Amino acid sequence: MSGLWEVLVRHFPQFLSGFVVTIQLVAAAFVVAVVLGVVVAGLRVQPLAPLRLAGTIYVEFFRNIPLLVLLFIAFAGLRRAGLDISRFAAGAGSLGLYTAAYVAEAIRSGVFAVGQGQIDAALSLGFTYPRTLRMIVLPQAIRTVIPPLGNLMIAMIKNSAIIGVALALADDLLKEARVINSRTFQTNEVFFWAAVGYLILTVGTTFVVRYLERRLVIRR
Q1: CB of 31 closer than 8 Å to CB of 96
Q2: What is the pTM of this model?
Q3: First-to-last CA distance in the chain?
Q4: What are 63-98's pLDDT values in tens digits?
Q5: Most buried in the list 7, 92, 122, 161, measured by CB within 10 Å?
Q6: How does pLDDT run across 104-114, given as a tens digit for each residue?
Q7: What are phi and psi of 167, to 5 degrees?
Q8: Residues 177-194, buried b or exposed e (16+ Cβ, 10 A)?
Q9: Which domains does the chain have, with CATH numbers?
Q10: What are the DSSP E strand ranges found in the chain?
């Protein structure tokens, strides 16, 4: 037990640095996922077939491609094509694009949960369909899908470890743990604290989601 605490105390700055970088990575990816997911969800519920098809293609493509493959395409592939992209940008972008497909489906289910009468009423008042989505449907839909969005964010936190391994992302939590382990060879102790760090992030996210759910979710 003393060795366990000794590892934490001695290497706390490195663990903390990795913890912060992981938060930054997930936050950036989550912003990309939500913004793009809302756009794709809007396409998926459009009355125009070509727009629905575009949204469907996006969802099916990114839901059926492994995240690891996207990471290699985003970093190694783009660099070989001449685009100088950082590991952080490649990781956050790939994770955001990947998760946006699931966000879109969650929001689409929320859109269908909004009463059709509200949509018909808005259209009868002269609202265009995109304006109806933006001002009436999506605000309600987003509130109804807070729990699944929270689950997706938890999944993103865990998937961020894949980014740390695949791209050797500098200073994220798992990378720092691997560096510390290579210096100390205290594998059990080091990765125990890495697991605790991820647990803090996921449990913290759960509490935030429950709070938002109580405050914002629509009661039916």
Answers
A1: yes
A2: 0.83
A3: 50
A4: 998 888 888 888 777 777 777 778 888 888 899 999
A5: 92
A6: 998 888 777 77
A7: -105, 0
A8: bbbbbeeeebeebbeebb
A9: 2-216 (1.10.3720.10)
A10: none
